[in-house]
Design a protein that fits this description.
By secondary structure, the protein is of the alpha/beta class. It is built from nine helices and 13 strands.
Length: about 325
């Protein structure tokens, strides 16, 4: 039972700690008598910053230690970037609340005024995201793409040391950390499809503790964001997607409708495929599945099959 104390599990990165404090403050606004403690954990994904995620287990490595803390009762809730969560939920755990989404777009960081179009031929752009690399390659085959991992501060420091001409990051992280000034151009989400869950914060807990925790966390729930996230994650799960695959999906609520766009690319060949669908926001899970089916029917299956057989990562 939760009485007067709540323990939040989070990663140790500055962005993860910002998100944990954001959740803590939101809880305290409506539960001022509660003691809320933040417990930070060093995840496997944070330890191995010199290895491509595709070779060590994917983005799930950023949540495993936090989920273990829930099972061991070292923490009551875990705060995640939803884009870091595997497509399939962990048995025994539940996404108890989804906070309102921040800007889901990717951004180019470099010299002010720089855009993808104005990057000089041969420019070195940093990203370790296969999705971002494929989208960039579709637009500018003359650009050199180099790996870039680490937290936001580490990536910006590498850019400042002139190791890259520009880097691609998520707008949400820069905005949350007060680094908006570093953004030189926003990448249009209608073409530059964001990662599944990008910009959204999720709060996870044990199913056994759902009843006692729900009243504390209900004020943080944002229904429209939840619907978009359900649709995106449903699409990803239907394709058995993960960070090792250049798959993207983004849903937007338009009244009582959801508009979904998806993207998949071959990480080596100049092959990519897009699909788009709209439907009722009342059943986002089914909409995500329908988009996945449409994607496969219209030619995405061949790309998906070949991409899954590859071990190349970016």
């Amino acid at each position: 039972m939760i009485s007067t104390k709540l323990r939040i599990a989070t990663r140790q990165s500055p962005l993860a700690l910002w998100q944990a404090h954001y959740v803590r403050e939101a809880i305290l606004r409506v539960n001022p008598g509660l003691s809320v403690e933040i417990r930070s954990f060093l995840t496997e994904g944070d330890k191995k910053t010199d290895v491509n995620l595709t070779k060590i287990g994917g983005k799930g490595l950023f949540v495993k230690e936090l989920q273990a803390a829930l099972f061991s009762e070292e923490a009551d809730i875990a705060v995640h970037s939803i884009k870091d969560m595997p497509a399939e939920p962990m048995p025994g755990l539940i996404l108890i609340a989804v906070c309102e989404r921040e800007d889901p777009r990717d951004v180019l960081v470099g010299r002010m005024g720089m855009t993808i179009k104005t990057l000089p031929s041969g420019a070195i752009v940093g990203t370790s995201s296969s999705r971002r690399a494929c989208l960039l390659r579709n637009l500018r085959s003359d650009i050199v793409i180099e790996p870039l991992r680490g937290n936001i501060g580490t990536r910006l420091a590498k850019l400042d040391k002139k190791k890259y001409d520009a880097i691609i990051l998520a707008a949400a992280g820069l905005k949350r950390l007060g680094e908006v000034r570093r953004i030189c151009s926003y990448l249009n989400a209608s073409f530059w499809t964001p990662s599944v869950g990008q910009g959204a914060i999720g709060i996870e807990c044990s199913k056994e503790r759902l009843a006692c925790l729900a009243p504390l966390l209900l004020p943080l729930e944002h229904e429209l964001t939840r619907r978009c996230i359900i649709a995106e994650r449903s699409f990803n799960a239907a394709l058995d997607g993960g960070c090792q695959l250049p798959i993207a999906a983004h849903a937007v609520c338009l009244g009582n409708q959801l508009l979904m766009r998806s993207f998949i690319a071959h990480p080596v060949k100049a092959l990519s495929f897009r699909a788009e669908i709209s439907g009722s926001a009342d059943n986002p899970q089914e909409l995500g599945r329908r988009l996945a089916a449409l994607f496969l029917e219209q030619g995405g299956e061949d790309i998906l099959r070949e991409v899954k057989s590859l071990t190349v990562g970016y």
